[in-house]
């Protein structure tokens, strides 16, 4: 009887072992390297039929409505594909389209030539979006891994994810400052009135606050990080700058328009 009971116990154990679930992709050690991920991402730039533009447009829309839902999708990607960063460049391609539309708007408002339009487009793409994004993403990637990472977790923040957070945070200010603002610039914002300065500078305040908030959401959604509230600190100097601009009658939009005119002419 003892031998029979032992045999049945061993049979149950062997049967249970055959149904052990595979290791979640988050904890596998044979994940793709960063170089392989970058290669696969860049290779898809040439394959528009493989890009999910509908989903990228959904993300852009929810960055205004509910940014938390966008970052919830990044969590799903980590579980399924072992990476937080996007593996589909559709979002970046659509962002370039919006940059093109914004450049057309600036060309019409400022009365730029065709060559000035090209220079303006290249400037906001490679300087305002990419170069600034590389600097901000690298800085926050270093800060988060150096000072915010939970040491008990054997993971770190991907640089590609840090750059994705920048692109997410860059999109709402792009629409506010480079698209919506243009409808009011000539008829209202450019006037030498207090209400004009207040409205125009408020758009900059909202844009910078939006960028800061979406950046904060991006890092706070990572369970491997702590003390992410410090990323909201820039809101204080942003508000202070807004008040100073009103006190000294500084029209931020006029200064930025003159700066762009100087850069492209």
**Backbone structural class:** mainly alpha
- Assign a percent range to the helix content: over 70%
Largest sheet at a glance?
none
The run of helices and strands is HHHHHHHHHHH
In total, the number of strands is 0
Number of helices: 11
Overall mean pLDDT stands at 82
Shape: globular
GO cellular component, one term: Golgi membrane
Main location: membrane
Transmembrane segments: 91-114, 120-144, 165-185, 197-219, 231-252
Subcellular location: Membrane
Task: Explain the overall architecture.
- This protein is mainly α and 265 residues long.
- It has eleven helices and no strands.
- It has helices at residues 2-17, 34-43, 53-65, 67-81, 90-110, 114-148, 159-180, 182-189, 194-220, 235-247, 252-264.
- Helix 5 packs parallel to helix 7.
- It is globular, with a radius of gyration of 24 Å.
- 23% of the residues are buried.
- InterPro entries: UNC-50.
- One of its GO terms (cellular component) is Golgi membrane.
- Belongs to the unc-50 family.
């Amino acid at each position: 009887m003892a031998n029979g009971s032992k045999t049945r116990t061993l049979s149950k154990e062997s049967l249970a072992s055959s149904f052990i679930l595979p290791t979640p992709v988050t904890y596998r050690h044979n994940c793709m390297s960063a170089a392989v991920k970058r290669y696969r991402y860049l290779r898809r730039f040439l394959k528009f039929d493989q890009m999910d533009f509908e989903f990228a447009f959904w993300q852009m829309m929810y960055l205004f409505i509910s940014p938390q839902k966008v970052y919830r999708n990044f969590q799903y990607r980590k579980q399924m594909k072992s990476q937080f960063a996007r593996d589909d460049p559709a979002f970046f391609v659509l962002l370039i389209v919006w940059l093109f539309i914004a450049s057309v708007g600036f060309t019409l408002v400022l009365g730029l030539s065709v060559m000035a339009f090209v220079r303006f487009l290249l400037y906001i793409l490679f300087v305002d979006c990419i170069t600034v994004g590389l600097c901000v993403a690298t800085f926050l990637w270093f800060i988060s891994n150096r000072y915010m990472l939970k040491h008990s977790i054997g993971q770190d923040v991907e640089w590609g994810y840090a750059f994705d957070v920048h692109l997410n945070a860059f999109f709402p200010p792009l629409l506010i400052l480079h698209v919506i603002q243009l409808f009011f610039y000539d008829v209202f914002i450019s006037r030498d009135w207090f209400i004009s300065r207040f409205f125009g500078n408020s758009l900059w305040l909202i844009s910078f606050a939006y960028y800061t908030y979406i950046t904060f959401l991006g890092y706070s959604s990572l369970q491997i990080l702590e003390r992410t509230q410090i990323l909201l600190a820039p809101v204080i100097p942003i508000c202070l700058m807004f008040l100073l601009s009103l006190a000294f009658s500084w029209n931020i939009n006029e200064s930025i328009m003159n700066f762009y005119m100087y850069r492209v002419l």
